[in-house]
Each structure stands twice: as structure tokens, then as C-alpha cells.
UniProtKB/TrEMBL annotation:
<protein>
    <recommendedName>
        <fullName>Arginine deiminase</fullName>
        <ecNumber>3.5.3.6</ecNumber>
    </recommendedName>
</protein>
<comment type="similarity">
    <text>Belongs to the arginine deiminase family.</text>
</comment>
<dbReference type="InterPro" id="IPR003876">
    <property type="entry name" value="Arg_deiminase"/>
</dbReference>
<comment type="pathway">
    <text>Amino-acid degradation; L-arginine degradation via ADI pathway; carbamoyl phosphate from L-arginine: step 1/2.</text>
</comment>
<keyword id="KW-0963">Cytoplasm</keyword>
<feature type="active site" description="Amidino-cysteine intermediate">
    <location>
        <position position="402"/>
    </location>
</feature>
<keyword id="KW-0056">Arginine metabolism</keyword>
<dbReference type="Pfam" id="PF02274">
    <property type="entry name" value="ADI"/>
</dbReference>
<keyword id="KW-0378">Hydrolase</keyword>
<dbReference type="GO" id="GO:0016990">
    <property type="term" value="F:arginine deiminase activity"/>
</dbReference>
Amino acid sequence: MMLQRQEMPIQVFSEISRLKRVILHRPGKELENLIPMNLERLLFDDIPYLEAAQAEHDAFARVLNENDVEVLYLEQLVAQAIDDAQVKEAFIDEWLSESGLEPGSHYAKVKEYLMAYEDTFEMVLKTMAGFTKAEIKVPHGNTLLDNINKDYPLLIDPMPSLYFTRDPFATIGNGVALNYMYSETRNRETIYGKYLFEHHPAFNNQKVPLYYFRNESTYIEGGDILVLSKDVLGIGISQRTDARSIEKIARNVFKDTSYQQVLAFMIGSNRKFMHLDTVFTMIDHDKFLIHPEIEDYLKVFAITEDGRGGIRLEEKMESLEHILEEALKLENVQLIRCGGDDPVVSAREQWNDGANALALAPGELIVYDRNIVTNQLLEDAGIKLHKIKGSELVRGRGGPRCMSMPIYRER
Ligand SMILES: NC(=O)NCCC[C@H](N)C(=O)O
């Protein structure tokens, strides 16, 4: 296991400047605890074949490595972060307190099971995978809840969306938004972020500033947060991010960082466009990839400081190109449309994350190979593509940007 004991600064002031270090999670046994009964609640549309999903994910990591990006795995970092016995027990207690189990015999048995692991890495993987009732042989309870749930074979749900490391925490500048998530299943993922940033020696030494907190009361997810430049953030008002959270994070970044403006993109509340990065990603200094369906009703609000410790709001009425040109001080912004101008192709390729590109550098992206029309349009615009397979990965509804959390980009 690779140990990262040296200081690990966070530096993300751009969506596109050269990517140097990224956090991924290799899909694990959490996918094997997906069943039709829990799919919708756990935010999946299908059950991926684990071995194939891992092979696709390994190929994604290889492309990153081959392009000089250091790949760190969340599960390894968390295992290192909770290496100390007291921290490990605190982690297990916190994980259990949000697992849906009432304190009692099940709780005690699961805790004992986890504490018995000699290998903390394996223990972390187990917390991600969840527990079946058969694994923890506790007698069938007789509470109303036990009776209602008697046909459900899991004692503790898995966290299948963990391989979308973009969402539970998000790097901004030199700090992090540790998010409060829209759904209970994904909010459990933020526990890993909490222990990582509070306890991993490589981060702890530099005391990571937090611009959002997992105990907030309004939700925000990393897929909605775009670091457009060193001065401007873009944040989606979406199914997963509440407008109130954007005001809170804006106040925090204005106070503690160089950021001066947040553009809030209202994209509607919709499963198929759950986050801003499923419909809009930055791909070059002056080029953006957009799903045309949102252009009809997109509203953009600019949030800035009012100079008296408060914030000023302005609804922007110009074209999206113009709004971006003004905010990012660009001459001429080009929008490339996912699927081009055929609404059937656009809808299908957006569903398969055609608009969710990860920039390795300005004008150089990782994309899924399956979005043929969008990829051709990108290449025609002079964008360099690294195409990866994602037939299994895409079943969780996320693409290369969703599956990666940059820690360090060149300035
Ligand atoms: N940034 C993203 O769009 N992430 C994809 C998240 C997919 C996950 N199954 C979810 O519904 O939250």
C-alpha cells in the first residue's frame, strides 16, 4: 500500500489546468449488495457486473497514470487516516450511528466484527460493502421495524455510489467542501471525507480549510461545484444542491479565499440531470460542453460580495456565452452541444454521461467511448480525447468527471 506521509497540499483553482493528483475509489463489493429492492433508494438504475466494472475502472486509472496523474484511492487513504486505535473506534462508532441500526445487539455484533479486522484497509472496504443479515447471525427481532423489513436481506446498506468520488467532498482552491448530501445513502459517504481530512497525516499537517460541513441542514454535492477559475466558482441549483447552500458556501469562500464570484446555474430538479456536471463541463480555456436540453430554461445568478460583509445577487439575462465571457474575462466562448442538434442523440448521450468530461489539461479530456456523436464534435473542435469503456460504470449514472476528485492541478 502506498503511504502518503508527506504533506499533501490541495491546489485546485481550475477545472482544466494540468491535473497532477486525483482521488478515485475502485468499485468494490458494495456493488454486489445491490438488489432490485434497494436500487432506487441507493440511486442506481441497474446492477453492474463487478469484475467488468473493476476492469473498466482500472483502465480509467491507467489512462490517468499514463498521463502523469498520481492516482490515490479513497479506501487506502481512509485506512491510513484511521490507523490509530482510538481514531479507528471513533470512525466505526460514527459509521454505525449512521448505518440505520439502533444501539442493541446487532450494533454490538457489527462493531465487534469490524474491530476484529487486523487489516484496516479490508475493514474500510467492509464498511463500504455493507452487511447482509446472514453474515451477522443475530436472532430475528420482533419490533415493528423488524417485521416490516423481514423480507429485506440486508442489515446495513452498501454505498454503491462511492466510486463517484466527485460528490461527497469537493476541492476548491486550497480547501474542501465537506458536503451534506441530498440522500441518506450518499450522506454516509461523507464520513470517509471527514476522517480523511481530519486525520490523515498528509492533510492534517496543513489543516485543511473547510468551506462546507457535513452537519449543515441544506444539501450540496460536489458534482454541482465547478472551479471555473481562480476567482469564479460555478455551482448548480439542482436536485442535489439547494439554493441556500450556495449562499452559505459563497459567504465562506468570500471570507476565506480569493474567490470573488459564484455563478449559480439553475438547472431544475431532475434525476437525469442530477448535478451541474451531468449537463455542463468546462473543457478548454474558452470551450464548454453543454447538454442542449437545459439551454431552454437555464437561469444564471451572479453572487458577489456587497462590500459590507453581505452578498449581492443579480440574475444574468445575457446569453450563456456572454455570461461566461464576462465572468472569465474571455473574448469568445464556444459551447459544444452534447449529441449535436439531434434531440434523440443528445438525450441518449447525456444519459450516458456524454457531457461529463474530465479535463487532464486545457483541451484534453477523458470521456466514455460510447458517446460517438459528442466525441466526434469534440474532436472536430480540436479537443484531444482519451476514450475509455464504461458499459458497467455508466449504470451508476456518472462519467469520468463524476468518478474523480482532483486534489492538485497546476496553476
Ligand atoms: N457528479 C455526478 O453526477 N455523479 C454521479 C452520481 C451518481 C450516483 N448514482 C447518484 O445518483 O448520486
